Each structure stands twice: as C-alpha cells, then as structure tokens.
C-alpha cells in the first residue's frame, strides 16, 4: 500500500498548502504525471506513464520513444518523482506493483496546472506600447495636429487614465491566481544528464 493510500484510509493526510503544492509540482515531469492521470484516470502502470512523459519531453509520438529516452524518464519517475508525489498525497504510488492512481488531492491541483493559451499575456509590452501611443498623441496635441485637436486635452487625459487603471487592476487581480506557468520554469534539456541531479 502506498503512503497516500494509507493516509487516505486513516484520514490523516492534511490538505496541502500552496507552497507545498508548488514545491512538488514546479518540476515539469511531475506536472506531466498529473496531466496524464487527469486525462486517463487510474490506475496506470509506470511503463505507460514513462512513455507518455518521454514523448512530451522529446516532442515525438509515444511509438517513437527510444529505449534510452524511456529508461531515463522511467528511472527518475520511479526513484524520485513518484515517491515525492506519493508522500505529499498528490498521487498514490505502489512501488511494488509499479502502479499509480489518483487521490482526492489530484483534482484539487487543477487550478495550478492551467495553461494560458499562447503563453502569458505580455504585460510589459502592453504598458510600453500604451506609453508610446500616449506620448505620441500628447505630442500631436502640442503641435496642434488635426483631428486630434477636436478632442479636449482633458478628455484625452481621462481616457489614458481610465485605460491604464483598468489594465493595472486586471493585471493585479489575475496575478493573484498563482499557476505553475507563472513560475517561469526554464525549458530543460532532457538529454542533459545534469537534469537528473536537480530533479528533487
């Protein structure tokens, strides 16, 4: 029986804090494990899971994963990632049978695995562009370029302030919802042997 199963049976597994969740799931391979379990349910075999994770890391179909690639992923999942996730109660890992199952906490991680389509909105570029456009309009007002002079400078100022305040408010609110993609994890080179030394 896995640690997660034992804790679930006794009702002793505490709810994870955000910090604990991010500490466990900041690694890409562990996120792939959760994604696979959410899509396919459980139980799943370790070999099946290793094929899936390797196919994502090496950007190839599961049928094209080489034995070396599969072995590297299999080993780190078996020795490092799955035991860590099992201890946290995020998955139930039976090391003897090589079987992984979901736990009540698996679904709780949905919000932390959200991916923003096309990447996070480029806020820095937005603010820079908005500032440049604002300065350009102000310059046209100073030299009296038509038709910008048809609108009162006070109206322009009100418009700029409203847009900036609305954007900043939305940015602040959306930034409070922490997701793994906001952690800015660098892209790992899965062929680098040093990758395995930094996995814990």
Task: Please describe the topology of this protein.
Blueprint: H1 3-10, H2 18-25, H3 28-40, E1 44-45, H4 46-57, H5 67-88, E2 91-94, E3 99-102, H6 104-108, H7 123-143, H8 153-175
Antiparallel strand pairs: 1-3, 2-3
Helix pairs in contact: 3-4, 4-5, 7-8
Could you explain the architecture of this structure?
The protein is mainly alpha-helical and 200 residues long. It folds into two domains: 3-110 and 187-198, Arc Repressor Mutant, subunit A, CATH 1.10.10; 123-175. Helix content is 56%, strand content 5%. The protein contains eight helices and three strands; from the N terminus they run H-H-H-E-H-H-E-E-H-H-H. It has helices spanning 3-10, 18-25, 28-40, 46-57, 67-88, 104-108, 123-143, 153-175; strands at 44-45, 91-94, 99-102. The chain has a three-stranded antiparallel sheet with strand order 1-3-2. The relative contact order is 0.14. Residues 6-10, 115-119 and 177-200 have low confidence and may be disordered.
Helical content stands at: 55-70%
Helix/strand order: HHHEHHEEHHH
Helix and strand content put the structural class at mainly alpha
Main beta-sheet strand count, sense and barrel state: 3 strands, antiparallel
Q: Uncertain runs with pLDDT below 50, 5 residues or more? A: 6-10, 115-119, 177-200
Strand content: 5-15%
Name of the CATH architecture of the largest domain: Orthogonal Bundle
Q: What's the mean pLDDT score?
A: 78
Count of beta strands? 3
What form results from the Cα inertia axes? elongated
Strand order of the largest sheet: 1-3-2
Number of domains: 2
C-alpha Rg (nearest Å): 24 Å
State the assembly state of the protein chains. single chain
CATH topology of the largest domain: Arc Repressor Mutant, subunit A
